[in-house]
Design brief:
This is Xaa-Pro peptidase family protein. This protein has 383 residues and is of the alpha/beta class. The chain contains 10 helices and 14 strands. The chain is elongated and about 70 Å long.
Length: 383
């Protein structure tokens, strides 16, 4: 089998999940997040774009309900022994197949947790599911139960995160070798992704962000490429990905002569991320990280130019986003604990002057100060 973890690792994860289910008084879980399935069993696919779910009972029973195209995928990549296939057909309603499976598993009248907040659960699927199970038992939203368990990384997971960080650094090296006046964004992007593939990495869970000129102020990928001017700015956000584990980075590279505003915004980014490092440790919350970000930015008159979040948890993720649920935003009570992999980004987009500046890297939390996973310093990049 194409497993990336020892069987004992999966056994430990199942034990943690069952303990949490007992705490929440759940008789079963319906997993729809591909990340949850991968974490629990190793199951690796993009078949979640269609209906599939993994049933986990409180006694440890695991059953996957999926399509025929993913039968062998599950057999090869996971520790799942019980795989059921629903049949593609006109007017198919796989939630009916699921209901029959739940009856077979003696779950009629049970308290069942469902992962609703995931890309593997469309609005249509949710409506079909709720319709089938309306009188079946007690259905509760358990969208974040596995997600929170995944926040703390095992030693094996940390090794993959650290390898992803090396690949992210390699991608930056490849980009910096090309960035200069007249350089084509297409070549830069190809070099970055190529460095990750050459290093044994994976496709990232979402597209790399690349934009220059006015488009350097965008925080999302968009189609279209341009060549860099003699004086320009290039914003890059990317992630090394290894066994689906991500380590993200973000930089704005100034091409040619930097403006005073570029320098000013870079200093604000650097000061803020250094201040965040003092609270990115146990004893603080995700909300504390954001509060530090907002305090420094706002004191420098940058409230209109900053974002309402400054990072998030990273781990094994699948398209369309490498972002975890847990983010650094106002009021988030999530505690910071040891062995979390967290991406901190400073993003300042000054539309008044058309100036972009970003700075970001992934950290591993420890019992004390966080460990930056990048070998690159947080320096001002000018080409």
């Amino acid at each position: 089998m194409a497993l990336h973890f020892e069987r004992s690792e999966f056994d430990n994860r199942l034990a943690r999940l069952l303990a949490k289910m007992q705490e929440e008084k759940l008789d079963a879980m319906l997993l729809f997040a591909q990340e949850s399935m991968f974490w629990l069993t190793g199951y690796d696919t993009f078949g979640y774009c269609f209906f599939q779910t993994m049933v986990v009972k409180s006694d440890g029973t695991i059953v996957l309900l999926t399509r025929s195209a993913d039968l062998r995928q599950a057999q090869l990549t996971s520790v799942i022994s019980d795989i059921r296939v629903w049949v593609d057909r006109v007017n198919a309603d796989p939630t009916l197949d699921l209901k029959e499976l739940l009856v077979e598993l003696d779950l009629l009248g049970a308290r069942i947790g469902v992962e609703y907040d995931t890309h593997g659960m469309t609005g249509r699927v949710a409506r079909l599911l709720d319709n089938q199970l309306a009188t079946f038992g007690q259905i509760v939203d358990a969208s974040y139960l596995v997600s929170r368990l995944r926040l703390i990384k095992s030693p094996a997971e940390i090794a993959y995160v650290e390898r992803a960080a090396v690949l992210a650094d390699d991608a930056l090296d490849a980009a910096l070798a090309l960035i200069k006046p007249g350089a084509d964004e297409a070549d830069i992007l190809a070099a970055m992704q190529g460095a990750i593939f050459s290093g044994g990495g994976d496709y990232p869970a979402n597209e790399f962000i690349i934009g220059s000129g006015a488009e350097a102020l965008l925080c999302r990928y968009k189609a279209g490429r341009r060549k860099l001017d003699a004086n320009d700015q290039l914003t890059l956000e990317w992630a090394g990905a290894y066994v689906h584990y991500h380590a993200a980075m973000m930089r704005t590279v100034v091409v040619g002569d930097p403006t005073h505003r570029h320098r000013e915004l870079y200093n604000a980014c650097l000061e803020t991320i250094q201040a965040i490092e003092t609270v990115l440790k146990p004893g603080h919350t995700f909300g504390d990280v954001f509060d530090m970000h907002a305090k420094i930015m706002d004191e420098r008159g940058l409230a209109r130019h900053r974002l309402n979040a400054c990072g998030y948890s990273l781990g094994a993720r699948f398209s369309p986003s490498w972002m975890e649920h847990q983010m650094f935003h106002a009021g988030n009570p999530q505690d910071i604990e040891e062995n979390m992999s967290l991406f901190v980004h400073m993003i300042i987009m000054d539309s008044d002057t058309g100036t972009a500046m970003t700075l970001g890297q992934t950290y591993l939390t420890t019992s004390q100060a966080p460990k930056a996973l990048s070998r690159h310093r947080l320096e001002f990049l000018n080409r």
